[in-house]
Amino acid sequence: MNGAFSLRAPQLADDLFALTRSLPLVCPHGHVPVELLADSRDGVEWTDPAALFVTGDHYVLRMLYSLGVSPEALGMVGGDGGPVGPLAAPREVWRTFCTYRDAFAGTPTGYWVRRTLQSVFGLAGWPTPDRADETFDLLDERLRATSPLQLLREQRVQVIATTDEAAADLGPHRSLGSAGRAPIVLPTFRPDAVSDLSSPTWVQAVRELGAVCDRDITDLDGLLDALWERRTAFRRAGATASDHGMSVPATGRLTPHQARTLVERRLRGHVDVADAVRFSGHMLMEMAAMAAADGLVMQLHAGVHRDHHHRFVRRYGPATGSDIPVAVDFTSGLAPLLDEFGAKPSFRLVLFTLDESTYSRELAPLAGHYPAVRLGPPWWFLDSARAIRRYLDAVVETAGVANLAGFNDDTRNVATVAARHELWRSSVAAWTADAVADGLVEVGQAERLVTALAYGLAVDTYRLQEQVDGTAHTHKDDDGR
Amino acid sequence: MNGAFSLRAPQLADDLFALTRSLPLVCPHGHVPVELLADSRDGVEWTDPAALFVTGDHYVLRMLYSLGVSPEALGMVGGDGGPVGPLAAPREVWRTFCTYRDAFAGTPTGYWVRRTLQSVFGLAGWPTPDRADETFDLLDERLRATSPLQLLREQRVQVIATTDEAAADLGPHRSLGSAGRAPIVLPTFRPDAVSDLSSPTWVQAVRELGAVCDRDITDLDGLLDALWERRTAFRRAGATASDHGMSVPATGRLTPHQARTLVERRLRGHVDVADAVRFSGHMLMEMAAMAAADGLVMQLHAGVHRDHHHRFVRRYGPATGSDIPVAVDFTSGLAPLLDEFGAKPSFRLVLFTLDESTYSRELAPLAGHYPAVRLGPPWWFLDSARAIRRYLDAVVETAGVANLAGFNDDTRNVATVAARHELWRSSVAAWTADAVADGLVEVGQAERLVTALAYGLAVDTYRLQEQVDGTAHTHKDDDGR
Amino acid sequence: MNGAFSLRAPQLADDLFALTRSLPLVCPHGHVPVELLADSRDGVEWTDPAALFVTGDHYVLRMLYSLGVSPEALGMVGGDGGPVGPLAAPREVWRTFCTYRDAFAGTPTGYWVRRTLQSVFGLAGWPTPDRADETFDLLDERLRATSPLQLLREQRVQVIATTDEAAADLGPHRSLGSAGRAPIVLPTFRPDAVSDLSSPTWVQAVRELGAVCDRDITDLDGLLDALWERRTAFRRAGATASDHGMSVPATGRLTPHQARTLVERRLRGHVDVADAVRFSGHMLMEMAAMAAADGLVMQLHAGVHRDHHHRFVRRYGPATGSDIPVAVDFTSGLAPLLDEFGAKPSFRLVLFTLDESTYSRELAPLAGHYPAVRLGPPWWFLDSARAIRRYLDAVVETAGVANLAGFNDDTRNVATVAARHELWRSSVAAWTADAVADGLVEVGQAERLVTALAYGLAVDTYRLQEQVDGTAHTHKDDDGR
C-alpha cells in the first residue's frame, strides 16, 4: 500500500508509515479459534483457499449473498447441520469469488484480500476468473505447507488474544503457553452466554459453566462465584481482558432480591425482554466490580441487532452475516457503571461502537473525562480506511491520542492479520501527516503519536507490557530478525 | 465544472469525469409534472424565468424566505388559492432572485442554477442585479421558443419517471409513449394518499381511487384490489417502480381483523396517530407482497416531519418548503418487511434517508446483506457535492458499489436535470480518483465503477434495460449523434 | 498558524486568511467573569500561569484527570470549599502541565495554548518540562504587568459579552460601559436557574431574583414580571442577547393553570422530572414571546447531561469537566416555539448543538426555512479544526452562509481569545478555498463569505452594529491603529 500517501503531506505520511513497518503486531482482540492454533498442524489439511477467504468470512459471505449468490454456492452449510441444497466444492466457491472482484472495490475486505494474496501468498493481486483454478491450486499448496501459527509468526504477530466462552476449556491456551514460542496466545473471558437471560441457550450455558467449575449453579450467588472462579482460571492462562457484547449498553444495579429473583425465574422458565436487559445491566456492574478487583480489562461491544434476518438464520445458522447495528446511548446507559467504577485505579473499560454519531457526542467526551475509559478502534462495519479517518477526526480532538486503545484486528482469518494492521497503520500515518500539515500536531510529536497508535497503545491498554517484553527475545530466536 | 478536480488525483478525476460525458441521462425518480411534458408546447407560454427558477422551486423559496424575503415577493400564491398580499410580477421576482447570488454560494442550488444558466441558456453565470431585466428577457424568449420535452431532449435525457398518485390519469403517459420520441416518460406509482389514515384527505383519495377503478371502495379488500388494479395499469403505461413516503419507516403485519377494522373506523371518522402508523406499516407489507409479485421496484423515502411550520402552511399551502427531517430507525423498522421479502428474487427495495447517521450504521449493512436492498443516492437536503462524498465514503466500504442505486435527480425543474447529473458525476469521479490514490480501488476498476455509478446502476436498479436499449436508436434519430 | 493551508488550494486559503487578520474580534458569547474585567487591575495579582491555563480551564482539567492526574495535583479545590488532599502549588501544577504536551496533540486546547504562548506571551511554544520553572516565572511576571482588559485590548477584541444570571448585579457592566474604552463589555441574560424546576437551588435563585427586583416572588406571574424587569435592566446595561441551556430542547405551552400550579408546587416542595421538562419548555415559550417584544437575541444550548460523574462532582463541585452530550431532537422539540415565533420579524434564535448528526438533518433545514433561526458555530467538544470543517460541510449546503451566526469563542480564558478566533478563521479560509476549488463557490464570492464568517455575521446576528461602529473610533484612540 502506498496510495494512501498521495495526500496533502505525502512525504511525511510515507516516512511515518515506514516507521511502523519495524513494529511487531499485537492483537488483543479477535476471533481466531484457539483450536486452530493449538495443534502442531504443519502438513495437516487445516483449511483450503475457499474456506479461508470465503466460507469462513462473514464479511465476504454477506456481500456475495447481497448480490444474489446463493449460500450453497458459497459453501454454507445449513443451520441444522446439513446443506439446504447441493453444496459447492471449494474450487467452485473460489471460482465464484474470483468473478466478484469489483464487488469488493472500495471495501476493506477488498483491500485485505488483495494485500494478503500479494504479501503473504505472493500472488499479483485478486485473481481474474481465468486464473481461478491455477491460483486455487497454488494457495492450496501453500496452505498445506504451513500452519496457522506459522502464518501468524511470518506476519510478526507477537501476541494474539482469542475470544472464549466462560466455560471454555483453557487446555489449548495452557499448552500453547508452555511451548514458549511466538506468538503468545491469550484467552479472553466472554461471559455473554450466561449474562443474557433472553438467550434461549442460557440454561444450557449455565449448566456448562457449572460443570467446568465442578458445581451445580442454582442461584445468582452460585453464578457469580463460578464467574469469579473462571476469571481466575482465565488470568492464570494468560488472559488480560474480558469481552461483553450486548444490544443496549444499559447498566445499573438491581436490588439483590430483584437480581436473585430474576435468576430463579429464568432457571424455571422465562423472563421478559425488559427484565433481561435490566439483568444484563446488573451483570455489567458485577463484572466491573470483579474487573476493578482482578484487573482484567473490560471490553464493551454494544449496539447490534443480532440475526436480523430470521428466515436466513433459521436456514444457515446464527452469526452468518445478518447482524445490523442500531443507534446507541452510551451517555445515559453507562452513567451508573462509570459513576461507580470510572475512577477506580485498577479498572479499565474499552468502548466499541458501530454508531459513528456517538464518536464526538459521547465516546470522546467520556474518554476525555473518566480515567478508566479508553476508546476501541473502529469496529466491524467501520474498520475501513475512510472510517478510520473519520474516527481519528472525531475522537482525537476531544479525547486526545492517549485515551485511545490502539488497534484490534478483530479477525477470524489468520492470513489477513498483517493486511488489517497495514490498513490501520497507513491510515494513521496519513491522518497524522495531515494533522501536522494543518498545524494541529507539532512535527516533533508525529513519530511518537504514530508509534503509540500503531503499537504502544494496544500494549498499554490491554496491560501486555510484560508479555511483549518476554517475546522480544523469542521472536529474535524464531526469525533471526 | 472543473473545480472538483483540484483534488489529490486531479488528472484521474478529470479523465473519469470526461468518461461520463458521453453517457445519456436516466432519471428514474423525480417530480416533473407529466402534464408539462404531455402536450406539444412549442411556442406555448408554459413557464417564465421566475416560475422556473424561483416560484416553482421549494429549495429556492425556503432559502429566500429564511433570509427575510416575503413569500408574496417570490410570487407565492396563498394556500386557499389567492395571494395573501400583493403578488410580485415574474420580472420583479427575478430581480429579487438576482440580488441573492451569495445566499446560494456553497449550496447545490447555487451550482445547479449557475451551471444551467451557462450550459442550457448560454448566460455567463448567475446574473448580477444590474443585468436582471436583460437576462429575464433573454431567458423568457428562450423558454417561449422551446418546450419542456425539448429541453430534456437537449440535455440527453433518455428516460424520465414522473411521480403519480394511485388515482392518476395515465392518459398523458400513454400518449407520450405512443409518440415514440426520446425521452421515454414513465409513471411511478405513489399510493401514499390512500395508505396514510392520518391524512385529512384520505377519504377523498380513496373515493378518487374507487372512481378511477369504477368501483366503490368500502373496505380493506376493496382498497387492496383497487391498488393491485392500478399497479397493473401503471405497469402497462410503462411504470417500473412505486414510491412510498412516510415519517416513521415502521413495518409489520396487523391481523386481518385489525387492518379491516382500522379501515372501517377511518371510513366512518378518525383513527389515532399510533394506529395510523401501524396501518401504514401494514400497507407497506401489502405493497411489498404486490411488488414481489409484479416486479415494480419499491422506493422508500422516510424520515420527514412534513409541513413543520403550520402557520406558514395554512397561508401558503403544503409542500412549500417547511419539511424538516427527523432521526430514523431503519434497523428495527424494516425488520418485519425484510425478513419476509428481503430475499425474494423479484423484490427490490430502494432506501432513501435524510439522516446521514444511518448510512454506515444501518443502510450500508442492510444493503450489504439483503439481496433485495439497494441504497438510493443522497436525497433532498443531501444532494450536494460534500454530501455525495460523505455518502460514498460512508456506504461503499460496507455495501460496495454494486448495492447502490446510482443517481436520481429528484427534480421538478426540467432545465436543471443535466446540472444535477453533472454534480453527481463529477463528485463520483473525484471520489473514485481519491479511492484509487488511497489504494482502495484498483486503477483498472475505476472506469467500471464510475460508469456504473453514473449510468448503469440506475438502469439496472430500476429495471430499465429494455427501455434504454429501445431509445439508443431513437436518440440517434433525434439528435444525429 | 500556516499549516492549515497545505490544502488543495493553498494560495487562495492563505490569501483569504490574510484578509481576516485586519478584522477586529467580536465575542458575542463567552464565560469571562465580569468581575475580572471590571476593576482596574494593572499591577494587581489577578491570576497566575497555572490558574489561567490549567486550574481554571475545564477542557484541560478533564483531559489531565482522564489520564490519571489527581485533581489536587491540578490545584482543584474540593466541592465544599476545602481541598480533598494536599493541594499542589501553582508552580507544581505548571510543571505537571508541561509534561503533558503530547496529550493535547491534535486537540483544539493544544492549538490554543501553543499559539497563545507564542503570540500573546512570546514563548517558542508549549514548554518542555525542563523549562517549566523558567516559563512559569516569565508568564507570571507578564501577567502581573497586565490586566484582563488590557490582554483583550491587545488581542483587538472590540466587543465581548459575558454570561450572567438573571439576578446578576449589573454594576460592573455599567461602570465598564461608562469608562468608554475598548473592548465594550456586554452582559447576557441567562435565566436557567429560575427556569429549571428540577434544580435543587431553584427556590434560592427565585428568592435572589425577587431581591434584586425588590419584590417577593410568590407565583408564576411574579416570576415572569421579574424576568421582564431584568431583561429591561440587562438591555439598559448593553445586553443584546439571552442564553438558555437545557438537556432536552422541548418547547410547548402549558395551560396557564398548569404552569401556575407547577410553580406553586415547587415553591412548597418538589415536582417530578417530566413536569420540570414541561415547565422548562413552557418558559422557553414565554422567553421567546419576550424576545419577540424586546429584541434580545435568544441563544439555545441544548443536549448536555450535566455532571455525569456524581462522585466527582460531590468532591470537586459542579461544572468541573464531567458534562457529557446526549442525542437531541430539535425537529420535534422546537416545533411549537418555531411555529409561533419562527417568522416574527424581531425574533431571532441561535441554535447550538453537541450532536453533529443534527447539523444536516435538523439544524440546517430549520435555519434554511425559518427567518428567525441562525446556526451557532461548533460548540464545546466541537470547537476544533476538523469539527469546524465538518460543520461547514454539513450546514452550508442547505442553510447557506447567511443563516449562520459567525463565531463565538465561548471562552473563560481572556488570554486565548485570539487563538480561538484564529483557528476558526483559518479553518473558514481553508474551507472556502476548497469550495472554490470544487466549483461550489465562485472566486469573486470567496472574500465576501470569509469576511462574513470571520466577522460580519457575528455582528449582524447579535445586533451589534451600533456597538462596533462606536468602537471603531475608540480603538483607534487606544492603539494608534
Outline the structure in words:
The structure is a homotrimer of 481-residue chains. By secondary structure, chain A is an alpha/beta fold. Chain A folds into two domains: 3-42 and 156-479, TIM Barrel; 45-145, Orthogonal Bundle (uronate isomerase, domain 2, chain A). Chain A is 52% helix and 8% strand. The first copy, chain A, has 22 helices and eleven strands. Chain A has helices at residues 10-20, 34-38, 49-55, 58-66, 90-98, 108-119, 132-144, 148-154, 171-179, 192-195, 202-212, 220-236, 256-268, 273-294, 310-316, 330-333, 335-341, 357-367, 385-399, 417-437, 443-461, 465-479, and strands at residues 25-27, 157-161, 164-165, 184-186, 189-190, 241-246, 297-302, 304-305, 324-325, 349-352, 373-375. A four-stranded parallel β-sheet of chain A has the order 6-7-10-11, with helices on one face. A three-stranded parallel β-sheet of chain A has the order 1-2-4, sandwiched between helices. The first copy, chain A, has a two-stranded parallel ribbon with strand order 3-5. In chain A, helix 6 (108-119) crosses helix 20, helix 18 (357-367) runs parallel beside helix 19 and helix 20 packs antiparallel against helix 21 (443-461). The radius of gyration of chain A is 22 Å and the shape is globular. The first copy, chain A, starts with 9 loop residues before the first helix and ends with a helix. The model of chain A is unreliable at 1-7 and 474-481 (pLDDT under 50).
